[in-house]
Amino acid sequence: MVEPIRKSTREEREQWLKEAHYNLFQLKADQVYIDCLTDSGTGAMSDRQWAALMMGDEAYAGSRSFYDLKDTINRITGFDFVIPTHQGRAAENVLFSALVHEGDYVPGNSHFDTTKGHIESRKAHAVDCTVDIAKDTQLEAPFKGNVDPEKLDKVLAEHADKTPFIIVTITNNTAGGQPVSMANLKEVRKIADKYGKRVIFDSARFAENAYFIKTREEGYADKSIKEICREMFDLADAMTMSAKKDGIVNMGGFIATRHDDWYEAAKKFCIPFEGYLTYGGMNGRDMAALAVGLDENTEFDNLYTRIHQVEYLAKKLDEYGVPYQRPAGGHAIFIDASRVLTKVPKEEFPAQTLTIELYKEAGIRGCEIGYILADRDPVTRENRFGGLDFVRLAIARRVYTDNHMNVIAAALKNVFDRRDEITRGVKITWEAELMRHFTVQLEPLG
Ligand SMILES: *Cc1c(COP(=O)(O)O)cnc(C)c1O
Fold this sequence. Notes:
With about 450 residues, this protein is an alpha/beta fold. It has two domains: about 170 residues, Aspartate Aminotransferase, domain 1; about 250 residues, Type I PLP-dependent aspartate aminotransferase-like (Major domain) (Aspartate Aminotransferase, domain 2, 3-Layer(aba) Sandwich), CATH 3.40.640.10. It contains 15 helices and 14 strands. The strands form five sheets. It has a five-stranded mixed β-sheet with strand order 2-8-7-6-5, sandwiched between helices. A three-stranded antiparallel β-sheet has the order 9-12-11. Helix 5 links the parallel strand 3 and strand 4. The chain binds pyridoxal-5'-phosphate (PLP). The site of pyridoxal-5'-phosphate has 15 residues, from helix 4 and helix 5.
């Protein structure tokens, strides 16, 4: 599908921002020129997906579209048990309702915000064991999404009896769309086995992760994406999936596992929260489109085209000297705001400030993946400034052209060139207790 986009003036955008309490989630999409808020559910479906949509079987129970989806997932991952859900966080909610309890520890690489939310709202601890090199945004390393095996082993040595599972997010979104190597997944498996623990992959961008393994890790150049996917999932016990990412559908998700005890435990929560077991939260037609999307997006050419577009934007930013998490991530560029707005104190949220400036400049909507998103520490209620402060420019799949990338880069350059004039950020005037970035209200300072 293509759609027209609308130009606006700086005055209009300033007014709209004010009405949105300086939170870009609260803008109307019509007020946005190029939308890089997220790559979630924003991709364009293919001809084959639209054709499949027309063939959806809407039977309440036992729909053909469910079995087609289940077969596709089984072929790609090897998992026999599948529960569809309305999106990724619903998969987390269903599975974690069965597995996560108060006082538990859930180690992994950087947990996604909803994943962390579902762990912390159950009064359990999400322990981030990402490798330290992920914090050095200027370092070029192929797998900055990896789990640090020593950190993981330490958490398990102390809390194995309180650890329901290990969760590995592929790719590691919070660290900048950075992949996890096959070697690292194997190490995680070894540590899990040592302590008798199971491993879940938070798999929203598993196909992009497989692409990076193929193109960056020794021994994988001649393997197909599907072969690599299978090898990855052979190292896991279950997956939660936001199909809105690498499934290239507008809404959907699922849980898949090889263990019938986990399936039985999750079933109990699927029916009251999501729906009957063969549709969970999804329409038959959406399951049909998802089955095709998963199949298409585990082919090399599709991934190559997409990831090259992200790399194209990165090259433009290199020309202009704009610092971002290197190398470019799979689905997005993560601008290192602390290196751009060096005069804005962290208490005034530099990345959010940069997001606002970029919108004012050219109507481009990015997303803060930084100190606001990090929420407060559940115990001390202090802001968490320990991580990175990024502006994420997510690129929708099969939507924009490289010309749009040129506009994004030029707008960022304009802001970058006047970075030293930006000395004040924003303050929070209202916030929710958990996942505050979606609804936070802000006011500019100075
Ligand atoms: C998007 C995402 C989720 C949550 O999925 P939704 O479909 O947005 O509910 C979980 N984990 C990761 C890594 C994601 O990218």
